[in-house]
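Lab manual, section 2.4: Encoding a predicted structure.

Procedure: take the sequence of the chain (561 residues), apply the prediction step described in section 2.3, and record the output as structure tokens. A sample record is shown.
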Amino acid sequence: MSQAKIMPVGIDDFKKLCRENYLFVDKTRFIKELIDGHSGVTLITRPRRFGKTLTMSMVRYFFDLDNAAENRSLFQGLDIDKAGERYMTEQGTRPVVFISLKDVQEATFAALTDRWRGTLSGLYGQFRYLLKGEALAPEEIAYFQRMLEKSANIVEMQDSLKQLTLFLAKHYRQRPLLLIDEYDAPIIAAWEHGYYKECIGFMKRLLGAALKSNEYLDFALLTGVSRVSKESIFSDLNNLDVCSVLTKKYSDILGFTETETEELMARSGVASKMPEVKAWYDGYQFGNTEIYNPWSVIRYVASGCEVAPYWLNTSGNVILKALLERVDYRRQRELEGLLKGKAVITPANENTVYADIHQSRDALFMMLLTTGYLKAVDLWLDEWSNRWLNLQIPNKEISIALRAEILQNIAPQQGETLLREMLIAMTGGDVKEFAACLREILRDFVSYHDAAGEPENFYHGLMLGLTLLLDGKYRLESNRESGYGRFDLAFFPAQNTYPGVILELKAAKADEADKLPELAKDALAQIAAKEYVASLRLQNVNTIWRYGIAFAGKRVEMVGE
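Recorded output:
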């Protein structure tokens, strides 16, 4: 642990971290582990803001033969220095290619290729001195110039990383180390913006050329959020070692262990705040190691120990939004369970496919695990040796942010206020206000396609939002047997002094809005005829509001008593 006092908010350059009096956690033991034994290509997947870029920067400064003497001073007194001279003799012994793709994200494939040209031009510009040497042939110099001038075609761009390792190996007569940080950032952006297949094709050729049977490469280290393998990006690599959030190898390198967090808090003079930090920012489990969110811990201390969802505020939550786009009854119950501390069960399939997220519940929950919204609390085998996971929300930060994201998805901006007004009307028996609020929500926050196509799914999502706002006062039940049938939705109060609520829903075609008043009356009559209130009566609930609600597209009619 450094003797400095300043918290390194947003610092991901190791040299700057060491030289400018920042307080930091010493992770140089990772270098020792790499020297002791590394694979030809290692991919480490972790959520965003868990220190991937800083770790890659550290590896770069240690091995890079450029400015080797100057960089050696950065490691004096750190764990790798204490490990012995055998390890320090490896310092400054290799050319290093370090490229970060975290900013290679665009809304179209054409824009992405332009971004790649600029990124590769900047990368080649770091090695412009190779043009003054004698190692490169004339055609290689011409290729180098096209990369600098951003005039390379797509095929040349796809070969760019392999070619650069070739040029460095010829110049130094020493095979280089290749570091690719946030390798999947372009893929995530492509998935979000709808050009996923084109991006996958480009990345497969780029990474395949650089990493598969590249005789000019010493070894490669990649970081990213997810393992993207089924799409065949890495299908031909027989030397790939994937270290995911479920893997024990390197499990303590990214993120803070509990001991590291305790030391950081003590050095910052706020050791007494450790229980609060643990509740808000602990809870991750990588391999067999308990891990704290490093970004949130640093921001917490730097902000005067004020708790806030720091990690969730750092970028768009596109994976989480994908979860909320299709809230049916089953997913609603799973979300409610997660928010109450329960676990969901899913197959432990790490071959992530972004294209499957909207179709596959299991792919979605595995992606939420790899991106940091869930943690694995148990990994177990069934009788056929299939791997399964129990997943939970890791800490208070994620729980609070997830609640906010659900509400934002259901009713953005002023919609939460409207939901609260509707809740007050519903539980207070104000049929006119309840109906008015529901009409406004349908008009302003629901697409015509959703309302016309699957009103039941919309309503389940709406009820999930109401459940969150009820904050423990009610328990929502759906399609439960009561009396002589099954009600659609019912709110069971935590105390029988609160009123209960029964909702029966009917749906007509979008062009049959004239039928809604009668359908609403039929729905209300059904509640009485089948005695749906029986379950609430068994809990000694004295006041029960009953509503018949009928939908046709974005139209709604309601009666109640």
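Check your result against the sample. The chain has a mean pLDDT of 87.
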